Amino acid sequence: MRNYVRKSERSVCTPELLEQARQRIANGESKLAIAKSIGITEAALRKRLEKGYGVEKLGRFKPTFTTEQENELASHCKTLDECFYELSFMDFRRSVYKYADINNIPSGFNQESRTAGKEWALSFMRRHNLSLRTPQQTSLGRMMGFNRVQVGIFFNNLREITTKYRFTADRIYNMDETGMSTVPNNVPKVVSATGKKAVGKISSGERGELVTAVCAISAQGSYVPPALIFKRKRQKPELMDGAPCGSKMFISDTGYINSDLFYEWVEHFQVSTKATKENPGLLILDNHSSHQSLKTVLYCRENGIVLLSIPPHSSHKPMFLPGAQDQLC
């Protein structure tokens, strides 16, 4: 049972302890003193001596799998986890049942559903440091692109430019874009009449419009006021009500960033960080096509902004600001 609490402190009289007890009895010690020293009752010791053999465990229940078999199952789960093909909880229970069935291992698993028990599976996961997690959807390109070689190249480049320009933590920035919806996906519960079939809540739209936020933060913790890209033809200043001081408003036909908008954001970045050739700043970013226009690269060269691209398909991993800060220490 998952929440079972043992109700006694009885020890097991193993064959090794039983042999030691026989030798001590032969040397003249009393059975009561021997039983107390090994943590069992005198009656239990007399019973083991009478039967002539010890036991490895208490109770009548036996584990379904051996330690080696459980380690094999746990290793299989961890290998699939490293390959981004994790088993769901139900798939794991089915796999355990099939493993026992193929290897002719007697078990008390459910024969109708052909799955291992829920309590057994949870206990197994606790024993082997496994847990149920909500995975992040990861494409094959991301999985293949993030590797030791690519990350090694990035940190080699980072080491070279930090050595050359002597960047301090407040001059190293990491930027990225993220999409937001004007209508939240998760609507909070509301108070309504019991038995009412349909409960609605007024919102700005049923699906919502995409808004892209362009954010940048330094290794020291300071940030550049964000830029918000709205899917519109004309600007509407009221949409920026409540935005952080200094935020910029951009518009595009799709709501996504493009080369022209990124150039405008770099100008905003330069004004906020006051980057110059005498006091340059490092901007770490991904290799999206909108970040690669010649106009932007030339502007960065003229204004002391050093661009460094992270490895392809690696933005799902932790950002590199802590790593950049470690390189400076």
From TrEMBL:
Residues 209-317 form the DDE-1 domain. It holds the Pfam family DDE_1. Gene3D superfamilies: Ribonuclease H-like superfamily/Ribonuclease H (3.30.420.10). InterPro entries: CenT-Element_Derived, DDE_SF_endonuclease_dom, RNaseH_sf. PANTHER family: POGO TRANSPOSABLE ELEMENT WITH KRAB DOMAIN, TRANSPOSON. This is DDE-1 domain-containing protein. It comes from Aedes albopictus.
